[in-house]
Amino acid sequence: MASPAGGDVVPTTQACPLPQSKAPADDLELQRRRSRRRCRCICLLVTLGVLLLLGVTLLALFLTVLRVRDPSTHLLSSRIVGVAPSLTQPNFTLLITASVHNPNPASFSFAAGTTGLWYRGTHVGDAQVDPGTIPSKGHAILNLEMTVFTAGFTANLTQLFEDIEAGSLPLDASARIPGRVAVFGVFKINVVAYSDCHVVVGFPDMAIRGQDCRDHAKL
């Protein structure tokens, strides 16, 4: 192309901008972010794994060691040891000896409990259970001094005479004992032990001729 002055015009070229590369500092910051994100994910997975393992361990511990098993009661003997004062009819004191087995792998410490006695559906006696401790997987001997109400037996004299003639008295005893089971000395679980026994007592020797006890523990 000719210029107005008649000379040749030197063509000019427009330089294209070169692509800008990321600075090394930006690459380093990106790597750091990725590394931190990776660490967070690993920590989260490890934490979830530990919590899952802890939950499974506690569940297995509860189903084996911490699961409260029912105790068992066996009446050993009963005998009259005295007469209890009364304004109406003379009552008498009956000493009942019982053996209680604790099947749990932890001791059972119990507070004062109560025991009731029934003769053919009529309430005829009460006793207090003194506080104590039954060792883990062990036995304890309980001596219960029960006050027996004479009026309860005489409410149905015909039936009473028949039982005396047969030489046996059918009785029902029920006990409620609150306490705690201590596992490893750390876990303490409140437990109430119940015992319901149907007993046949000889007359007049008061020997236990038969019994059927049903025991259970309730959290």
What does this structure look like?
The chain has 219 residues and is α+β, with helices and mostly antiparallel strands. The protein has two domains: 23-64; 72-218, Immunoglobulin-like. The protein has three helices and ten strands. It has helices at 24-64, 150-153, 157-166, and strands at 72-84, 91-101, 107-110, 113-119, 122-129, 132-134, 139-148, 168-183, 187-202, 208-218. Strands 1, 2, 3, 4, 5, 6, 7, 8, 9 and 10 form a ten-stranded antiparallel β-sheet that branches. A hairpin with a 6-residue loop joins strand 1 and strand 2 (91-101). The longest helix is centred in the N-terminal third of the chain and has 41 residues, at 24-64. It is rod-shaped, with a radius of gyration of 42 Å. The mean pLDDT is 80.
User: What is the CATH topology assignment of the largest domain?
Assistant: Immunoglobulin-like
Strand content: over 45%
Low-confidence sequence ranges: none
Instruction: Report helical residue fraction.
Output: 25-40%
Number of DSSP-assigned strands: 10
Order of helices and strands: HEEEEEEEHHEEE
Span between termini:
107 Å
How many structural domains does the protein architecture include? 2
Number of helices: 3
From the alpha carbons, calculate the radius of gyration and give it in angstroms. Answer: 42 Å
- The CATH architecture assignment of the largest domain turns out to be Sandwich
Envelope shape:
rod-shaped
What is the arithmetic mean of pLDDT?
Answer: 80
Tell me the structural class: alpha+beta
The major sheet is characterized as: 10 strands, antiparallel
The CATH class of the largest domain: Mainly Beta
